[in-house]
């Protein structure tokens, strides 16, 4: 009985110790983190970056030493980025003159995210069986 209790506590400790925290919507940052898990430093491009931490797809990468370009329309978000990520390039831009290209890219990014989310769910399912 004591051995079973120790095994349970060991598993519980592991869940707490290795728990991943997501800062983005629908844990997209965890998918990105998994894809680039072996890459220590890199460069990202975050269009529509929103808040520098909350609902942000690149914050985990930033915490790992990455840097990049962040683009948003909200001046308050840009000010927060300038404070929290001084080495990143922060831009206020609106890309409406290429509406067709923008929609095509948006559709392609959404399809990619759906695909990555499906792969991530598949990965989680196989991890839980182990």
What features would you describe in this structure?
The structure is a single chain. The radius of gyration is 19 Å and the shape is elongated. It has one domain. It has a 3-stranded parallel β-sheet with strand order 1-2-3, covered by helices on one side. The model has no long low-confidence stretch (mean pLDDT 77). Strand 1, helix 3 and strand 2 form a beta-alpha-beta unit. It is mostly helical and 130 residues long. The protein is built from 5 helices and 3 strands.
Task: Present the secondary structure layout.
Layout lengths: L1 H16 L10 H8 L7 E5 L11 H5 L3 E6 L2 H10 L4 E4 L6 H31 L1
Parallel strand pairs: 1-2, 2-3
Summarize the structure.
This protein has five helices and three strands. By secondary structure, the chain is mostly helical.
Describe this protein with a few key phrases.
3 strands, 130 residues, 5 helices, mainly alpha, single chain, 3-stranded parallel β-sheet
Shape: elongated
What proportion of the residues is helical, as a percent range? Answer: 40-55%
Counting helices, strands and paired strands, the structural category is mainly alpha
Strand order in the sheet with the most strands: 1-2-3
Would you tell me the overall average pLDDT? 77
Count of separate structural domains: 1
Q: Low-confidence stretches at least 5 residues in length (pLDDT < 50)?
A: none
Over all CA atoms, what is the radius of gyration?
Answer: 19 Å
Strand segment tally: 3
Q: Helix and strand succession?
A: HHEHEHEH
Q: Note the total helix count.
A: 5
Biggest β-sheet strands, sense, barrel: 3 strands, parallel
């Amino acid at each position: 009985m004591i051995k079973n209790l120790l095994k349970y506590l060991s598993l519980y400790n592991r869940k707490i110790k290795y728990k991943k925290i997501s800062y983005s919507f629908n844990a997209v940052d965890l998918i990105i983190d998994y894809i680039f898990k072996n890459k220590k430093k890199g460069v990202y491009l975050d269009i529509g970056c929103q808040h520098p931490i909350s609902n942000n797809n690149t914050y985990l990468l930033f915490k790992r030493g990455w840097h990049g370009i962040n683009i948003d329309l909200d001046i308050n978000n840009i000010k927060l980025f300038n404070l929290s990520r001084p080495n990143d390039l922060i831009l206020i831009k609106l890309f409406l003159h290429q509406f067709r290209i923008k929609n095509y890219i948006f559709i392609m990014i959404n399809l990619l995210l759906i695909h990555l989310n499906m792969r991530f769910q598949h990965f989680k399912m196989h991890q839980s069986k182990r």
